[in-house]
Design goal:
The chain is mainly alpha-helical. The chain folds into 2 domains: 62 residues, 3-Layer(aba) Sandwich (Rossmann fold), CATH 3.40.50; 38 residues, no CATH class. 43% of the residues lie in helices and 5% in strands. Strands 1-2 form a two-stranded parallel sheet. The longest helix is centred in the middle third of the chain and has 9 residues. It is globular. The chain starts with a helix and ends in a 5-residue tail after the last helix. It catalyses: beta-nicotinamide D-ribonucleotide + ATP + H(+) = diphosphate + NAD(+). InterPro entries: NMN_Atrans_arc, Rossmann-like_a/b/a_fold.
């Protein structure tokens, strides 16, 4: 979904790495752990205060992106709209919407929130 959304925005995917990094639940070595999974980097973008502190203490430059409308662009809110069968398509990139619909993610979500009564 992320790659498709970036591609739709015209971003050169040859310059993008999407790397899943398992959590180790050890803040003191988190920055080093991340660096073992990624190519060299000099800047970290984060809004999370703990992430900011960890990477600053490890000597990285940290950029804090501007806030966004978290009440509107919120995964819990979007899932609620999907479950209630309300319009949510304008809250996600088209590639994300298409992927969820193609894989019946909306239907699956409605099924798992049902009860067995």
């Amino acid at each position: 979904m992320i790659r498709n959304s970036l591609r739709d925005e015209g971003i050169d995917l040859s310059r993008i790495f999407i790397i899943p990094i398992p959590d180790i639940l050890m803040n003191s070595v988190w920055a080093y752990h991340v660096s073992t999974y990624t190519p060299k980097f000099d800047v970290v973008f984060a809004r999370n205060p703990l992430v900011i502190r960890i990477f600053k203490e490890a000597g990285y430059k940290v950029e804090v992106p501007p806030p966004f409308n978290r009440e509107k662009y919120n995964s819990t809110y979007i899932r609620r709209l999907i479950i209630l069968n309300e319009n949510w398509s304008e809250l996600v990139p088209k590639a994300v919407y298409d992927f969820i619909i193609k894989n019946k993610g909306d239907q699956r979500l409605r099924e798992i929130v049902g009860t067995d009564k």
